[in-house]
Amino acid sequence: MYTDKVMDHFSNPRNAGVIENADGIGEVGNPVCGDMMAFYIKVKDDKLDDVKFQTFGCVAAIAVSSIVSEMAKGKSLKEAKLITKKTVTESLDGLPKEKMHCSNLGAEALAKAIKDYETKISE
Amino acid sequence: MYTDKVMDHFSNPRNAGVIENADGIGEVGNPVCGDMMAFYIKVKDDKLDDVKFQTFGCVAAIAVSSIVSEMAKGKSLKEAKLITKKTVTESLDGLPKEKMHCSNLGAEALAKAIKDYETKISE
Amino acid sequence: MNLIYMDHASATPVREQVIKAMVPYFDLQFGNPSAVYDMGFNIKQVIEEQRAHVARLIGAKANEIIFASSGAEANNLAIKGVALAGQKKGKHIIISAIEHHSVLNSARFLERMDFEVTFLPVDEHGLVDPERLAKVIRPETILVSVMHANNEIGTIQAISELSSICREKGVIFHTDAVASVGNIPVDVNVLGVDLLSLSGISLGAPKGTGALYFKKNIRLMPLIHGGIQEMGRRGGTENVPGIVGLGKASELAANEISAKKDQLQKLRELLVSGIQEKIKKVTLTGHPDKRLPGHASFCIEAIEGEALIYMLNQDGIYSNTGSACASKALKTSPVLVAIGVPPDLAQGSVVFTMNNNSVQEVRYVLEKLASAVEKLRSLSPIWREKTA
Amino acid sequence: MNLIYMDHASATPVREQVIKAMVPYFDLQFGNPSAVYDMGFNIKQVIEEQRAHVARLIGAKANEIIFASSGAEANNLAIKGVALAGQKKGKHIIISAIEHHSVLNSARFLERMDFEVTFLPVDEHGLVDPERLAKVIRPETILVSVMHANNEIGTIQAISELSSICREKGVIFHTDAVASVGNIPVDVNVLGVDLLSLSGISLGAPKGTGALYFKKNIRLMPLIHGGIQEMGRRGGTENVPGIVGLGKASELAANEISAKKDQLQKLRELLVSGIQEKIKKVTLTGHPDKRLPGHASFCIEAIEGEALIYMLNQDGIYSNTGSACASKALKTSPVLVAIGVPPDLAQGSVVFTMNNNSVQEVRYVLEKLASAVEKLRSLSPIWREKTA
Ligand SMILES: Cc1ncc(COP(=O)(O)O)c(C=O)c1O
Ligand SMILES: Cc1ncc(COP(=O)(O)O)c(C=O)c1O
Q1: Residue pLDDT, tens place only, D93-138
Q2: Which burial class, exposed, middle or buried, applies to D187 when counting CB atoms under 10 A from its CB (0-12, 13-18, 19+)?
Q3: CB nearest to C328's CB, from B58, B98, B102
Q4: Count of other CB atoms within 10 angstroms of residue C279
Q5: Which of A79, A115, C61, D206 has the CA that lies 20 to 30 A from C212?
Q6: Which of B7, B31, B62 is the closest to C379 by Cβ?
Q7: In this structure, which residue's CA is closest to atom 7 in ligand 2?
Q8: Cβ–Cβ below 8 Å for A11 and D314
Q9: pLDDT tens digit string along D230-244?
Q10: Å from A32 to nearest chain D CA?
């Protein structure tokens, strides 16, 4: 059902965990629906110096979170904003159709975290 | 489906054929329904000196005719009248339920032939 | 005694290759195809491969195939499924007078659900007249079902003509192709049908398997309600070994079917001409050439079919009959009635359906049939009348 | 890696003895059981022998058994068949809130046919309250269906209490015993039911087999219309190898089932107590002891079931879940909703159903499950909240 890439990220998730004192936090989904993700970012020189995530959800949700964190880490905020459901799906060599919608929330959570950071610094 | 006895009488029918100048003839059934039997008898000293039959019909109909002819041959008319569906079925070690009604016409045809004979001689 | 099997319309043996393909799905790959873990997923994939094999055999796409537990179930799903899903549009359906019981009794069921059913008569060869069909279609007609080939008399209908009439009038067309798929090339696009039923029994696949082809836009009320199996159109855990058997048999048939036709036709011609030569007063039922290549059916005067089948059985020959005595309902075959065979002649029905048979077998059958008929006729009071 | 199968509620492997019994009916004895000649008749006899085996397993008579192509079909035949045959008496039926999809969606179908359906709630252990049932029965109620054991939570209902209420009121009672037959002794007389469904999937018989028990006086509208097969109650050529498989498996089960219970219960207790010891915040779903002996089901906080199943799969363990993500419909299990499990907790559902498993296997599962849960919780934002 899942691609090898998905299974790899599910089995060995990159950047799992919490950043205490994160510069930005983004949360999407909720456990009632079955998928919930939290992204934590540390920003330095407009770059994502560190990215971590926590995910409650299925194989797809965990793999999506993991690959998003990997794709984002080290990128400029601008570049990171270009990460979309589509590029995430491609990087995972595809996702089952029924999983496209609700488990593929990683890019959204990351974007929320960046927004959170931007809101904070603009204050 | 059929007992060995039925199969034996079907495969080697006894007394098949016609008696030319029969003393009595009995016909029952009709080919539209699928079963039709004709019995021919020769009577001597109130005994069935010869019995023959012709049957259009299924395995059961043929076996029934054959065994009825065998049961009747040599019997007195009075004895022959005691041949019934039930005794025929028993002599064949049983018949399939759905065949009891329409294929088991041998006793009836024989009775008709005897009646035919009795009517003729009483005229 | 060597057994000669000439009842392929009733059942076909499953080939060793097909059995071999099936067996691992009993014990090694036994998981439920809906299961989340790898064994379940792998089996689900295998089912989808089989769906593609079945689709390819009839020129369809894999997602247009629903697996079923028999040809009868496929027919029920088609007839009731289309009717119950489409009843808002109208409650009139049309079927031919020579449909299989599973179509006929589905239609009778719909009558109890306040549908109206028109039974299309057939001519003496069993053919439906397209003009007649065109005339009985009404605005409220939602479904027409005419079988592709008839199992009792072998007649092959002009399905593409019939279906094109329905297409023009916006009426859904179903064909029961149980007797044809596996015996002749069948292509849903050439036939122009919206739904088509097939069964493992004619395909060298196991009994208890079948499939319904349905065009993607056709709305179907499930017959067996349940979970998400078969795209939500048929509940119940899939008969995985059966599906593998049907898929493998379809794959084999797809490769072999064109070659088979000529050989079967030759056997049939030998059988038909031989019987007509050796036996007096015998009628070929069905169409003389618009018929299944391996299918030869007759009515033989003055004898009864069950007795004949038993006599042939004693000579090691397996064949079939539509005689009343051989049917559990003790009723003359409605197909023979529909083509106008008189009831007494209909009793003498005998049907040979060939597949992997040989010329020698046909010769043997001819010989034994002639003597069986002779023997039965010698017993028959009607034969005497006839010859008297 | 050794594979540990703990999903016996979804499918069971077919034993070699059973496969051996089936195989001849693919190619050697391949005839149609309706055929008139000896091969057909012999096969018909074999079917009747299997009917007797299945009947004996549940204390029924052979002529009270109809073969079906799955448990789902048996359920559809029971629910729709009784309702459509009895609708003149009334159009109200009652089913429990935790029925299998095949019962639930058959009832939903009847709603479209203008029937009214009452869904009986269950308590937190999944039990139907007999008093509550008594209250919702009306004069126009014609059928009550409550499953014997639930496949997701293992709860066994007090069927004889429920059925006796129905008997008093003259209402037909059906039970879906797919999850119980094969796991515990089941006797239709003890249960007091009018109809009972069973499936090959729980019996070590092939998928795509099942049977419906029905008391002789029960009127049933066929689901699959057709010929005279199955006493006119189910059309279609019989799945002879499948029936032989179901019969053989029933024969084996009848001899083994009493002995199995204790051993399975021990395994279950080991699994349940081990999980409760090793894992925090875990709830046993279903009834603590009125449950199938080999059935252990849980909801584990702060993790999601599909992910857990995959992780166990990587350790060679096959188990099941009722989580929304694992269902193709992406909906939380209606059974877990019905017993009042909060939706977020319901995501962490995991189900182990054991059969020929060993103590070592249970120990291995305990170890791997604990580490999988730990790993998933370490990823989980909710777990952090909980422990924070
Ligand atoms: C309780 C219950 N009823 C019915 C069924 C349906 O049986 P089958 O899978 O044979 O269609 C199942 C199958 O999982 C079940 O668990
Ligand atoms: C023309 C036709 N349709 C349907 C069927 C039913 O198929 P099955 O036996 O698989 O139920 C048959 C079977 O004999 C058939 O000949």
Answers
A1: 999 999 999 999 999 999 999 999 999 999 999 999 999 999 999 9
A2: middle
A3: B98
A4: 18
A5: D206
A6: B62
A7: C71
A8: yes
A9: 888 999 999 999 999
A10: 4
Q: What is the value of pTM for the model shown?
A: 0.96
The CATH classification of domain D16-253, taken from the options 3.40.50.1000, 3.40.640.10, 3.40.50.1820, 3.40.50.720:
3.40.640.10
Q: Provide, as residue numbers in chain C, all residues whose Cβ is less than 8 Å from the Cβ of D152.
A: none
Greatest CA separation found in chain D? 78
Beta bridge partners, D283, equal D299
Mutate to test the interface with C, among B11, B28, B56, B101 (most CBs of C within 10 A): B56
Could you state, in order of their start, the residue ranges of all structural domains in chain C? 4-10+257-387, 16-253
Please tell me whether residue A86 adopts helix, strand or coil conformation. helix
| CATH class, B4-122 region | alpha beta
C-beta of C98 in contact with ligand 2 (< 6 A): no
- Ligand at minimal distance from the CA of D157 is 1
What is the tens place of the pLDDT at every residue in A54-93?
Answer: 999 999 999 999 999 999 999 999 999 999 999 999 999 9
Q: Is the pLDDT assigned to residue C387 strictly greater than 70? A: no
Give the residue from B81, B19, B14 showing the smallest Cα distance to B47. Answer: B81
Tokens of C144: 């027409």
- The residue annotated as part of the active site, out of C35, C190, C231, C325, is C325
- Find the helix or strand (DSSP H, E) in which A42 lies: strand A35-44
Task: Verify whether residue C299 is a known catalytic residue.
Answer: no
| Cβ-Cβ contacts under 8 Å, B31 against chain C | 302, 343-344, 347, 382
CA distance D172 to D140: 12
Structure tokens at A90: 């491609």
Q: Is residue A101 over pLDDT 80?
A: no
Among candidate residues D214, D217, D221, the one with its CA nearest the CA of residue D60? D214
Q: Please say whether the structural domain C4-10+257-387 has been given the CATH code 3.40.50.300.
A: no
Q: Which residues pair with C155 in a beta bridge?
A: C291
User: Atom of ligand 1 at shortest distance to CA of D209?
Assistant: 10
State residue D388's pLDDT score: 55
Separation between Cα atoms, residue C212 and residue C172, nearest integer Å: 14
Mean pLDDT estimate for chain B: 94
Residues in A closer than 8 angstroms to D383, CB to CB, are: 56
Nearest chain C alpha carbon to D26: C14
pLDDT, chain C, mean: 95
- Please tell me the distance from the alpha carbon of residue D44 to that of residue D51, in angstroms, as a whole number: 11
d(CA C304, CA D48): 28
